[in-house]
């Protein structure tokens, strides 16, 4: 009884201070995972400029989007405004929730917190969140050249969805989106999205941030490898071992396949011990007993050394050649097909559409952070409002109450 009163109080206070909904994953250990941001370019930007906005490297961004990195001078390739990209990001556990604080932005003339949040970072962050993360007293007095921490959303959910490997994409809902459209686009279901995001109803509003599970292939590297737990979404490539190795899912399978990266330079040996096979090599040998398949697999990166593992298996039939997501040319235009479009939409809106008031929606009464949804989400996700300094306290409060009520209801 007391619980219910407390929750209603907390939710009604949230209602007064909130804007768009955002999924927040509570966490307790300080482990990290790899995650993705769904980012729509607010203007034409070079690949290297997108990379510096997120303090990541251009090659990782290109490979995450299956863009061919062997094009000459690809770092300086200009990507078109409104292009949708997946940005790889390391997701941490800070103050009990999943987020990333590793991105910094240096302010330029005419920047405001609202333009940085809504336009430059495409609504992945709110002005209030930047203000709070940097203890900005007066947002109207923003000195040019100030280095601001940009807190970005992310989720790990144990690297799985329905017990299958998954990488989570933080996706900013646009006006044209429906939950069904987003589910179709990312090959998941409305009910899965509702579970992951602890939604009471299949409704989304422009500016909401959803955690979208992307089916993925998981590695099985030893714990001491620096890339332990590497998990790569279907259709993406990931770099490992200091840019020496690239990994992706083989089409039609859940197995991770790694090979020398196309730009590999000064790398440690990639030969499997006691064998003449190189990392990524697969040999097949038909015998009366079946097909003898020998592979030289990547087994993680430790102490600057590429670990390899020779494995042998007898299979009933010899496997055909492995196929991977095709690498695409660096785009010059926003494709009309759905390759980069976030969800089936009639057309791409004009520039600036993504900045359209993230925060025009409020938590529907009975939806969002109200109790009853908690038990559905993996590892206790909480869908709640983008938090300001005031609501932050109540979110923490809700998290503790939710674990409390979870214990009692299970
Ligand atoms: C968190 O990280 C610190 C070092 O960074 C480590 O000493 C500590 O054991 C970690 N805690 C957990 C719960 O993993
Ligand atoms: C996390 O995932 C691993 C395998 O991916 C599984 O063994 C483990 O039980 C999961 N843990 C939780 C808390 O779901
Ligand atoms: C991976 O993506 C391809 C192409 O988009 C699709 O055909 C395949 O079913 C996907 N595989 C998994 C395991 O999701
Ligand atoms: C082994 O892999 C190397 C590097 O990827 C490649 O050049 C070579 O042709 C492969 N050999 C076999 C037998 O597949
Ligand atoms: C499979 O082939 C490898 C080398 O090609 C060989 O060492 C191994 O004995 C073979 N295994 C079987 C069961 O034939
Ligand atoms: C890596 O180096 C450290 C210290 O040099 C050593 O203790 C550790 O065993 C090494 N790990 C591996 C996997 O070689």
From TrEMBL:
TM region(s), chain numbering: 390-408
Protein origin, superkingdom: Eukaryota
Lineage, broadest ranks: Eukaryota, Viridiplantae, Streptophyta, Embryophyta, Tracheophyta
LysM domain residues: 103-150, 169-212
UniProt keyword list: Membrane, Signal, Transmembrane, Transmembrane helix
Listed name of the protein: LysM domain-containing GPI-anchored protein 1
Keyword field contains Transmembrane helix: yes
InterPro entries on file: LysM (IPR018392), LysM2_CERK1_LYK3_4_5 (IPR056562), LysM_dom_sf (IPR036779)
Gene3D superfamilies (alphabetical): LysM domain (3.10.350.10)
Signal peptide: 1-20
PROSITE patterns in the record: LYSM
UniProt keyword Membrane, yes or no: yes
Coiled coil: none
């Amino acid at each position: 009884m007391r619980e219910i009163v407390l929750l209603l109080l907390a939710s009604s206070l949230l209602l007064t201070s909130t804007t768009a909904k955002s999924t927040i994953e509570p966490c307790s250990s300080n482990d990290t995972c790899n995650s993705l941001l769904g980012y729509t370019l607010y203007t034409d930007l070079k690949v290297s400029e997108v990379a510096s906005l997120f303090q990541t490297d251009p090659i990782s961004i290109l490979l995450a989007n299956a863009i061919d990195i062997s094009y000459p001078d690809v770092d300086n390739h200009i990507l078109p405004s409104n292009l949708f990209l997946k940005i790889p990001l390391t997701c941490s556990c800070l103050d009990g929730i999943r987020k990333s604080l590793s991105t910094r932005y240096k302010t330029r003339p005419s920047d405001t917190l609202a333009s940085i949040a809504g336009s430059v970072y495409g609504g992945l962050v709110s002005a209030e969140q930047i203000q709070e993360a940097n203890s900005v007293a007066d947002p109207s007095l923003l000195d040019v050249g100030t280095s601001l921490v940009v807190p970005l959303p992310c989720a790990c959910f144990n690297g799985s969805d329905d017990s299958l490997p998954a990488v989570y994409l933080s996706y900013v809902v646009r006006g044209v989106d429906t939950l069904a459209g987003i589910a179709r686009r990312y090959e998941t279901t409305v009910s899965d999205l509702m579970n992951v995001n602890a939604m009471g109803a299949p409704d989304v509003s422009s500016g909401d941030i959803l955690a979208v599970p992307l089916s993925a292939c998981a590695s099985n590297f030893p714990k001491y490898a620096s890339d332990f737990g590497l998990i790569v979404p279907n259709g993406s490539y990931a770099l490992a071992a200091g840019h020496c190795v690239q990994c992706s899912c083989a089409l039609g399978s859940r197995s991770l396949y790694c090979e020398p990266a196309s730009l590999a330079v000064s790398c440690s040996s990639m030969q499997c011990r006691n064998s003449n096979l190189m990392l990524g090599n697969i040999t097949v040998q038909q015998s009366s007993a079946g097909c003898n398949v020998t592979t030289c697999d990547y087994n993680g990166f430790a102490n600057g050394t590429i670990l390899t593992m020779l494995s042998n298996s007898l299979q009933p039939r010899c496997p055909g050649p492995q196929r991977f997501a095709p690498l695409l040319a660096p785009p010059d235009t926003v494709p009309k097909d759905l390759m980069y479009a976030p969800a089936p939409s009639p057309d791409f809106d004009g520039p600036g559409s993504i900045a359209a008031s993230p925060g025009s929606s409020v938590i529907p009464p009975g939806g969002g952070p109200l109790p009853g949804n908690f038990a559905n989400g993996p590892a206790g996700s909480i869908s709640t409002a983008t938090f300001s300094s005031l609501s932050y306290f109540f979110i923490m409060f809700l998290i503790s109450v939710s674990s409390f009520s979870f214990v009692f209801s299970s």
